[in-house]
Write a structure and sequence with these properties.
Blueprint (H helix, E strand, L loop, with lengths): L1 H8 L5 H8 L6 H4 L9 H14 L3 E6 L5 E5 H17 L7 E5 L4 H12 L3 E4 L6 H10 L4 E4 L1 H8 L11 E4 L9 E2 H7 L14 E6 L9 E5 L2 H13 L6 E4 L6 H13 L3 E5 L5 H11 L3 E4 L1 H10 L1 H4 L9 E4 L6 H11 L3 E5 L9 E2 L13 E2 L5 E7 L2 E4 L6 E5 L9 E2 L3 H6 L1 E2 L2 E10 L5 E6 L4 E3 L2 E3 L1 H9 L4 E11 L3 E10 L7 H15 L7 E4 L13 H9 L15
Parallel strand pairs: 1-11, 3-4, 3-5, 5-6, 6-7, 10-11, 10-12, 12-13, 13-14, 27-28
Antiparallel strand pairs: 1-2, 8-9, 9-20, 14-15, 15-16, 17-18, 17-19, 19-22, 21-22, 22-23, 24-25, 26-27
Helix pairs in contact: 4-5, 4-6, 4-11, 5-6, 5-9, 10-11, 17-18
The structure holds adenosine-5'-triphosphate and magnesium ion.
Length: about 575
């Protein structure tokens, strides 16, 4: 009975109060989320809340299939689909806390699946569907997957050979009406399931999402996020992207990357926008046509895609009407100043860079709507986010002066911060010092509080006493009309310690030549000075990138030096 009296004196958990306590300024959280009598369910915030408030007929998801088919799914439809999905999970004996992994493209069932999983109180982990068998298997082992949602073809090719060796895996749900042996076809099960399933009330600190990092710097880590993260999804979507009810919003991220969940499913739905979802991959005319046809207002993309647009030239954009666009944002890699200026010219709006990580669960630093954009800067921390530039010294951390390069650090406490790296407690602990979370990125802050990305801590080049960030050199190179993309590394040098070496891909109409190489070095010398400019420029057809579109400089370096390539499970392009 002691337990009962203890329970009676425990105050009911208040999400708003907890959020305030965790960081001072989530001041409008009360209007952004509902809560379930002191408990949480992200699916409730994303769907049921809006349906209960009379918005069931608003389009939640306007979907285009690869084959050109179209489907409009309302908030009411998506709530029902996710409830059916939750019922399927329950019927197969799954419980709150169990884990579902998805390996699927941008199909409606993925959205219903993610939200159905959360509705059932289970933990959702998306993977890139293009992963090979090994990266899938390792991640499913680390994450103790209980359910896998995927297609028949992925299952046959990549999962079936080792499925029996993952004892935690109880159920494989296959998209469509037919399933290989030992799997369950989702189509008929969804059709037969009830569209009623009340969101399971969860504690704010219960795990809800696990996202694997992109593997740009090494072996990917599984970052654990909790139910309470939804407060930050709501808040940051509004603050950093300007998401408002009814806005037409298009996030182009792959569902396997954290952006595909935080800002490709949760933040937009919690903010009750109409999401444009295109199943197909990047295709210039298709993308421009989508913006025009759907009258996209808010567009969230990534530097790789933006550089592909630039490569095609302003002429390719000229036939399209972009007047619906009100806000463009970019994440994932540094956005070269050239891209900001170019996009403002071509779309009438610049891409606004913002910075965050899988670990932070949401946007931390941003060029927010209405802010003066400084091309090349990531912007300023969101309200309630305390960011600093620090340096590790003998007696702990020291804050750097304006314009001094140091490590970008954040004061933990915002709701969507990771709570663990799965099975890697030591690596998790190493990310904190003196009450700060250390991001592993180098940056500087100017006198006005704008943050400027310099490079990954691992990528910094030390040449004749200069500290050189690859981003600065890459940005200078892509200012040249011949250069589409650049990846810059430091290579050992007897006199200078390291010298800068650049790998570039070229725009259409340009061909590699010794003369162009000399010209690019000359151009960089003029912009950057001799100490910082690359000593050598190498032409490539492609640069090695992760599936989330990040240039893997460590791989350029390993190949340059003939060193082991390390974990390349997330590598997308592999042409040397
Ligand atoms: P891993 O941690 O496995 O090496 P990753 O860091 O690339 O991979 P993500 O969490 O997907 O995995 O990416 C976050 C990182 O991406 C940031 O730490 C930063 O280096 C880079 N990044 C994201 N947005 C920006 C931006 N706007 N400007 C510069 N860098 C960015
Ligand atoms: Mg990282």
């Amino acid at each position: 009975m002691a337990q009962d009296s203890e329970a009676a004196t425990t105050t009911v958990f208040d999400p708003v109060a907890a959020t305030r306590a965790s960081a001072d300024l989530w001041r409008d959280a009360r209007t952004l989320i509902d809560g379930l009598d002191g408990k949480f369910n992200i699916a409730h915030e994303a769907l049921d809340r809006h349906v209960n408030q009379g918005h069931g007929d608003q389009i939640a998801l306007r979907w285009s299939g690869k084959d050109g088919s179209q489907q409009d799914i309302t908030y009411g439809d998506l709530r029902d689909m996710s409830a059916r999905f939750a019922n399927v999970l329950a019927a197969h004996g799954l419980h709150p806390g169990d884990s579902l992994f998805s390996l699927a493209g941008r199909v409606p069932e993925l959205y219903a699946g993610a939200l159905g999983t959360l509705r059932a109180g289970m933990v959702f982990t998306p993977l890139f569907s293009a992963f090979g068998p090994d990266p899938i298997r390792t991640r499913m082992e680390i994450g103790q997957a209980n359910v896998l949602l995927t297609t028949a073809s992925i299952y046959r090719r990549k999962i079936a050979p080792w499925r029996d060796q993952i004892p935690s895996l109880k159920l494989v749900l296959i998209l469509g009406d037919d399933a290989p042996e030992g799997c369950v076809a989702l189509g008929p099960e969804l059709a037969a399931a009830s569209p009623d399933f009340a969101p399971v009330p969860m504690e704010s600190e219960d795990p809800a999402l696990i996202h694997f990092t992109s593997g740009t710097t090494g072996k990917p880590k599984g970052a654990v996020h909790v139910q309470n993260a939804v407060v930050y999804h709501a808040f940051s979507g509004r603050e950093a992207l300007g998401l408002t009810p009814g806005a037409v919003y298009w996030c182009t991220a792959d569902p396997g990357w954290v952006t595909g969940t935080s800002y490709g499913i949760l933040s937009p739905l919690v903010n009750r926008v109409t999401m444009i979802v295109d199943e197909a991959e990047f295709d210039l005319d298709r993308w421009y046509g989508t913006v025009e046809r759907e009258k996209v207002q808010i567009w969230y993309s990534a530097p790789t895609a933006i550089r592909m647009m630039m490569r095609a030239g302003a002429e390719a954009a000229a036939p399209y009407d972009f007047s619906s666009l009100t806000f463009l944002a970019s994440v994932g890699e540094p956005l070269n100043p050239e891209a900001v200026v170019w996009s403002a010219k071509v779309f009438g709006q610049p891409f606004h860079d913002n910075w965050w990580q899988t670990e932070t669960g949401g946007i931390m630093i941003a060029n927010r709507p209405g802010m003066e954009v400084r091309p090349g800067s990531m912007g300023k921390p969101l309200p309630g986010v305390e960011a600093a530039i620090v340096e590790k010294g003998e007696d702990g951390l020291r804050e750097c002066a304006p314009r001094e390069i140091g490590e970008l650090a954040l004061r933990p406490g915002w709701p969507s911060m990771m709570r663990a790296y799965l099975n890697e407690e030591a690596r998790y602990q190493k990310a904190f010092a003196d009450g700060w979370y250390l991001s592993g990125d180098l940056a500087l802050r100017d006198e006005d509080g704008y943050f400027w990305f310099v490079g990954r801590a691992d990528d910094l080049i030390k040449s004749s006493g200069h500290l050189i960030g690859p981003f600065e050199v890459e940005s200078a190179l892509i200012e040249h009309e011949a250069v589409a993309e650049a990846g810059v590394i430091g290579v050992p040098d007897e006199t200078a310690g390291e010298v800068v070496k650049a790998y570039v891909t070229l725009n259409p109409g340009f061909r590699p030549s010794d003369e162009l190489e000399r010209e690019l070095r000359g151009h960089a010398r003029k912009t950057l000075g001799a100490a910082v400019a690359p000593r050598e420029v190498v032409f490539r057809n492609t640069l090695p990138k992760t599936r989330s579109g990040k240039i893997m400089r460590r791989l350029l370096k390993a190949r340059e030096l003939g060193l082991p390539e390390g974990d390349i499970s997330t590598l997308e392009t592999d042409e040397t």
